[in-house]
Amino acid sequence: MSRFRKEFLLKQHTPIIHFQSDQSGATLRATELKPKFDRFLIEIFEKEQIDYKDFLILGQERALDYKVKIEPNMSLSTTIDGRSPLFFGNMGDGKDKEFKENKESFKISFSSFNIKLKEYIEQYFEAFLANTNFGTRQSKGFGSFYIDGKSFDKNLVKHKVYSFSSSKGHWDRDIKLFYSFLRQGINLPNRNGTRFYAKPAIFLYAKERGWEWDKKAIKEHFFPSDLVTQQKKYSDNSPINYSSNNKKLLRDLFGLSTEQLWMSYSATVKQEHDDIERFKSPITFKVVENMVYFWADNSYKDILGEEFKIITKGNSPLTLSTPTDFDFNDFFKFIKTINLSQVVESKYQSENEYRTLNKILQNLKVQR
Question: Around Cβ 271, how many Cβ atoms within 10 Å?
Fold first, then answer.
């Protein structure tokens, strides 16, 4: 092999969803990978105070002087199942996006006449893959690639990493279930009413901190009669009856959308802020083999202590603030203490979702 070239053998662990999936060969693209890898390397150079001006393409400030060639065999692709628990893009007219997946390992090669830059590429490419997914819905585990034959090294991730084992072929179902449990709770209906129900972990955490979470505060302000009707069905010590004067906007720390449809109330709830319109989830899931790794980056800290105006039609606004002292690692630490049998009613504990969620929590409990 040329001294100016470095090859890696990659394995694809989850399908990639590409916006040009109707084009032949739409898969992991150099046009997506190189800008991401450039930013990753430059961040390292700046942190380590490495002078990288000689690594740049002449006349460009943030593009490194190397080339990438990816050689996958894209003879096989599968159409996205409309029922996929983590993808909702094929809801309208037009050509459906497709999963693109390489069943066999494939080569990626880097070439640069700058030997020192090539050495940095060789040194940091695995760390880049550990921190990065590709394509659409990448934060939820899609587009996960890793070096073939290597076990995932969580020490390469910039943030504290947690993990749980997943049933083969069901990583997306397990991520959907776990993420729902973290943020908004789980309420699965059947013909007779509710098949499985679990309050969200963020609600339980808020109660532990003496906070009232935003969904309860919104119900109190905009839908008080509906809330009273719900509360009458439960005992006074039920979580649904917990109240506090210290009300916090918490669900949006997992990702902010300015508009939510509250279907049970036939209402649209909007959130307004002078400067913040959207905020993506700080939590990333990375799937390698049958393990699901996840972590939270520090982006959520940018919206701590921020005040939002909550609005729904025909009502006076409600003002809620995110907490000033929230930390995702403290929240994940709390999750390890949850005894699912005490927070999910016994009538739901025979369901597969209970067993799966309990298995995930047991995986987390044994981790430091």
Answer: 20
Give 198-202's long-range contacts (Cβ < 8 A, gap of 24+). Answer: 198/340, 198/343, 198/344, 198/348, 198/353, 198/354, 198/357, 199/239, 199/343, 200/251, 201/331, 201/334, 201/335, 201/338, 202/250, 202/251, 202/253, 202/254, 202/331
Q: Give the per-residue pLDDT at 327.
A: 97
Q: Tell me the torsion sign for CA atoms 203, 205, 208, 210.
A: negative
Which residues of the chain register pLDDT less than 50?
21-25, 91-93
Give 162's strand partners. 294
The torsion angle over the Cα atoms of residues 261, 265, 266 and 269, rounded to 10 degrees, is -40
3-class secondary structure, 61: coil
Nearest Cα neighbor of 322 from 246, 223, 259, 270 is 246
Distance CA 220, CA 19 (A): 42
**CB contact at 8 A, 203 and 185:** yes
Q: How far apart are CA 99 and CA 28, in angstroms?
A: 12
Tell me which CATH code domain 5-152 carries: 3.30.70
Alpha-carbon distance of 237 to 222, in angstroms, equals 23
Q: Is the whole model's pTM more than 0.85, yes or no?
A: yes
List, for residues 180-199, the tens digit of each pLDDT value. 999 989 999 888 889 999 99
Report domain extents, the chain.
5-152, 171-365
- Contact in structure between 332 and 164 (CB atoms under 8 Å): no
Which of 69, 4, 59, 75 lies closest to 31 in space, CA to CA? 69
> How, if at all, do strands 212-213 and 247-248 pair?
parallel
Angle 132-21-25 from CA coordinates, rounded to 5°: 85
Q: Which residues pair with 311 in a beta bridge?
A: 270
Neighbours of 66 (CB within 10 A): 23
